[in-house]
């Protein structure tokens, strides 16, 4: 099943959850989750709920996702497979966990730009790759981050998880993992014997 189909099923199931309201101060605030989507319709970004990220924030997100998952010999970069769209859709969904992530990510974006201005007089997206990596190195591991960077490190950890989730649920990401599911098989012989042995299973 591709990501678009998965999203349609998630939206359909989520419509039955208890109603919730976005917290005050959010762009495009809506009450409740809306009606059930039509599963056979192709929805475009922003049709189910208003999207969150501004053009500048999408640019920053594109730079950051490509620092986390750059292009290599096996697969394209995260931004090239639509991870920024995935994250924007995720942050815009009116569910409590998504709204919490929206707070975390938008605060993190503000921190990145403020820290970039402090260090180099430019916003994060305008820095050269070396300076961008330098800032990310300071927040990429919460156990090693300085006390003043702990909140930023929590943002980076969550953003990294969202980036990986978006990338590895795309066709390119599944191919990068050598994932062979979602295809018809003429036969299935069970798990490979070497895997069962490694797991101490009969």
3D architecture notes:
The chain is 51% helix and 0% strand. The chain has eight helices and no strands. The protein has helices at residues 3-14, 55-68, 83-92, 96-120, 129-139, 150-168, 171-176, 193-198. Helix 4 packs across helix 6. The longest helix has 25 residues, at 96-120. The protein is globular and about 60 Å long.
Question: What is shown here, in short?
Answer:
By secondary structure, the chain is mainly alpha-helical. The protein has eight helices and no strands.
Set down the secondary structure blueprint.
Blueprint lengths: L2 H12 L40 H14 L14 H10 L3 H25 L8 H11 L10 H19 L2 H6 L16 H6 L4
Q: In whole angstroms, how far apart are the ends?
A: 31 Å
Secondary-structure-based class equals: mainly alpha
Strand percentage lies at: under 5%
Low-confidence stretches: 1-28
Number of helices: 8
Task: Report mean pLDDT, rounded to a whole number.
Answer: 85
**Rg, nearest Å:** 20 Å
Helix content bin: 40-55%
The largest sheet is: none
Count of separate structural domains: 1
Would you report the number of β strands? 0
Name a few traits of the molecule.
single chain; 202 residues; mainly alpha; 8 helices; 51% helix; globular; disordered N terminus
């Amino acid at each position: 099943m591709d990501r678009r189909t998965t999203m349609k099923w998630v939206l359909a199931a989520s419509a039955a959850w208890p109603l919730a309201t976005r917290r005050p101060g959010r762009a495009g605030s809506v009450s409740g989750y809306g009606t059930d989507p039509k599963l056979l319709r192709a929805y475009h970004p922003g049709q189910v709920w208003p999207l969150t990220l501004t053009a500048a924030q999408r640019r920053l997100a594109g730079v950051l996702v490509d620092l986390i998952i750059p292009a290599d010999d096996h697969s394209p970069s995260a931004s090239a497979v639509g991870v920024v769209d995935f994250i924007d859709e995720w942050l815009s969904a009116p569910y409590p966990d998504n709204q919490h992530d929206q707070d975390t990510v938008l605060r993190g974006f503000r921190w990145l730009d403020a820290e970039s201005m402090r260090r180099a007089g430019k916003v994060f997206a305008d820095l050269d790759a070396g300076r961008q990596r330098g800032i990310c190195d300071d927040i990429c591991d919460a156990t090693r981050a300085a006390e003043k960077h702990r909140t930023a490190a929590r943002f980076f950890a969550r953003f990294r998880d969202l980036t990986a989730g978006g990338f590895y649920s795309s066709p390119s990401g599944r191919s990068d993992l050598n994932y062979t599911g979602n295809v018809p098989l003429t036969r299935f012989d069970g798990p490979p014997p070497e895997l069962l042995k490694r797991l101490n299973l009969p």
